Amino acid sequence: MTDISWWGWIVLGVSAFFIGLSKTGLPGVGILAIITVATVIPARASTGLILPMLIVGDVFAVSYYHRHAVWAHLFKLLPYAVLGILAGYLAMGHVNDVQLRRIMGGIVIVLLALNYWRNRHLADDAPVPTAWWFPAILGFLAGVTTMMANAAGPIMTIYLLAMRLPKEEFVGTGAWYFFMVNCFKVPFSAHLGLITLTSLKFNLLLSPFIVVGAVAGIAVIKRIPGKFFNEIVQWLALAGAIKLLI
Domain for residue 1, yes or no? Predict the structure, then answer.
C-alpha cells in the first residue's frame, strides 16, 4: 500500500465510487473503473482487487432492484456464463501481467466497438433475438471476460437492451446476474492468488466510496441523461484501453 502515490489513491477512490455508481444507476462507468484501477495496480492483481468491490456494489443493487429481475433471462445466461468463467480461469494460469494488460485493453476495445455497432445499426424496432445461440454466445463471452478482466458489462448491456427490457427490469436482471456470477468467481480468484489479505485490506479502505457511489446512482438515475453520460464514459474507457495496450 505504501508504494501507491497520493494520486494513485485518488484514482482508486474515484474508481470505487464509479463501481458503486455503475451498479445502481449508470452501468457505463463500470468499464472506466476497471481500466483506471489497472493503471494504478498491476493488471493481474487488479482483477482480484476489484472483485470484492464489485460484490459490495452488487449487494446494494440487488437490495434495491431485487423485485425487478427477469429470471427467465438469467436461467438462459447463467449455464453458459459458468462455462465461460471456467475457460477464463484456465486461461488466467497461462498469462503474465503484460499479456493480461493487453488482453484487458483488447477486450474493452472490442466490446466498445460492438456497443457502437449496435447503437448505429440496430433500429429501435429490431426484433428481439430468440435463437438459443444468442444467450449461449453472449453468456459464454460474458463469463470469459468477467473472469479475466471483470469486463462483462458491455456484453450484458447488449443482451439486456436486445431483450427490450424496461429500465427497472434491465437494472434488476443485471444486478442479480452479476451478484451470482461474481460470488461464483471468488474461489477461482483466490486460488489464483488474486484475492489476498492485502487486497482485502484495500477493499476495506475503499468500501465507503463504493457505498457513496451506490447511493448516488440511485439518486441520479432519473436525473442524468444516461445515453449522453455513457457516450462520454465510453470515450474515456477507449482512452484507458489504448493506454493498457501501449
Answer: no
Query: Do the Cβ atoms of 241 and 49 come closer than 8 Å?
Result: no
Q: Write out pLDDT tens, residues 200-236.
A: 999 999 999 999 999 998 887 777 665 666 666 667 6
Provide the angle, in degrees to the nearest 10, between the axes of the packed helices 133-149 and 97-121: 140
CA quadruple 8, 152, 70, 140: dihedral positive or negative?
negative
**Any domain includes 111:** yes
Q: Which one, of 36, 55, 60, 32, lies nearest residue 46 by Cα? A: 36
Q: What is d(CA 120, CA 202) in angstroms, rounded to the nearest whole number?
A: 40
End-to-end CA distance of the chain: 25
For the segment 122-155, what is each residue's pLDDT rounded down to a tens digit? 655 556 667 889 899 989 988 998 898 888 877 8
DSSP 96-124: -HHHHHHHHHHHHHHHHHHHHHHHHH--T
Domain that holds residue 232: 6-245
Contact of 177 with 78, CB cutoff 8 Å: yes
Using CB atoms within 10 Å of the CB of residue 115, give its burial: 0 to 12 exposed, 13 to 18 middle, 19+ buried: buried
Is residue 176 a contact partner of residue 116, using CB atoms and an 8 Å limit?
A: no
Provide the number of structural domains found in the chain. Answer: 1
Instruction: Collect all residues with Cβ–Cβ distance below 8 Å to 180 and sequence separation of at least 6.
Output: 74, 78
Q: Please give the Cα distance from 120 to 115 (Å, whole number).
A: 9
